[in-house]
Amino acid sequence: MREKQVAVAAQSGPVVQSVVRVLKFDVAIAGGSFAGLAVARGLAQALGPDIKIGVIERADLATTSAGSDSRAFAIWAGTKKILEGLGVWDAVSSDAQVVTSIEISDSNIDDAFRPSRVTYDAHTKDGSPAAYIVPATSLQAALYKSVANDSSISWIAPADVDGMLLGEYSSELTLRDGRVISAQLTIAADGRNSKLRDDAGIKTIGWAYPQTGIVARVKFEEPHGGVAIQHFLPGGPFAILPLPNNRACITWSADKDEAARMTALDDDDFLAELDRRIGGRFGAIALDGPRQSWPLDVRIARRLIAPRFALVGDAAHGVHPIAGQGVNLALRDAAAMIEVLADAGRLGIDFGNGTHLERYQRWRRFDSTMSATLYDSLNRAFAVDNMVLRAGRGAALGVLDRLPSLKDFIIAEAAGVTGDLPKLARGCPV
């Protein structure tokens, strides 16, 4: 970090000087999200003391309790390689649950028999696990710990960004406390409602769903065996994501009226409603953490870059959680950004001005747009409660279940081990 002080004189009246504290970095990252922390960690690893990074975050993650977050993520094989390359996988592995198989069903809540339409063996061609379920708190803590004591990274928190100026030679962020962050490049990792994306003049394409996302962590009486289950129910998808110690993260999308009714229930009635959707498969259940809910929408940035500015993670693409791929997309963004900036840094190229940012945009736009479209289509197709459509869906899923080569292809695509992948996602150093 390089720091200078600038004297500012009043434009009229007596001359009054105030001192503006300017902190100078090579790269400023606004938002201590999964993607933001991953970019900071990867750049510090790749370029060491030759790069100075500032991470600006509204919350002080060192003191903020993460216990209120009941979410868990499906970390697919390609993303696991990214986390291994960043040196953080070992810190989360003890909290990670291997997914042994994936079951998909399409039925009504009160159906007496709820058959699995498709069952996947959740392994890649080499026999290794295709996916793990990891608590959000474990992933956040591991990523934060990886950057907390790195001399190349300055943690600026708690801090709010009031404004941004993208100039010819630098980007400048003005903080609410009056400090100014100056950098060659600003990376916005501040979520799907990104203020900086709006300040940069980047428009989005998106819409709100008539659904609310609900998450709860539970403890089962009977072993879950590592099976991940996706029930496509009339109001939206309902997923059971297994966790260690016979726990699970329950996440589903319900229509707004049903979600409002559910969230208003006391714990006993809420668990009874959960059990209706689980179908009593794992015996008695108990809450193992707080419940959470939020409105669902999709928001895709029309561009991923602007002069001296770039988007990663949910700031670039907030998608429907139906396939649990949001954090995987975010970490692929991070891996691509790390690679293009590391290449630029080694050549002495200005981080905020060069063809490397165009390369990043081309690389990540297709993946994020196609993924958002696919998840939206799946949600719409399975949310329709119609007997004819359900019969058609059941027939299609039945055909899929009898095509092992197609199922292997789908698992490989979901696992993020195919296509034009960043080096970290291929298990290669940057």
From TrEMBL:
Classification via InterPro entries: FAD-bd, FAD/NAD-bd_sf, UbiH/COQ6, UbiH/COQ6_monooxygenase
Instruction: Give the UniProt family note.
Output: Belongs to the UbiH/COQ6 family.
Q: Which cofactor does it need?
A: FAD
Provide the GO biological process annotations. Answer: ubiquinone biosynthetic process
Which organism is the protein's source?
Answer: Hyphomicrobium facile
Q: Does the keyword Isomerase apply?
A: no
The entry's keywords: FAD, Flavoprotein, Monooxygenase, Oxidoreductase
Keyword Lipid metabolism included in the entry's annotation: no
Its ancestry begins with: Bacteria, Pseudomonadati, Pseudomonadota, Alphaproteobacteria, Hyphomicrobiales
Query: Which is an annotated GO molecular function term of this record?
Result: monooxygenase activity
NCBIfam families annotated for this entry? Ubi-OHases
Q: Where in this chain does the record put each FAD-binding domain?
A: 25-343
- A Pfam family of the record is FAD_binding_3
Please report the name of this protein according to its UniProt entry: 2-octaprenyl-3-methyl-6-methoxy-1,4-benzoquinol hydroxylase
| Highest taxon in the source lineage | Bacteria
Which pathway does UniProt place it in? Cofactor biosynthesis; ubiquinone biosynthesis
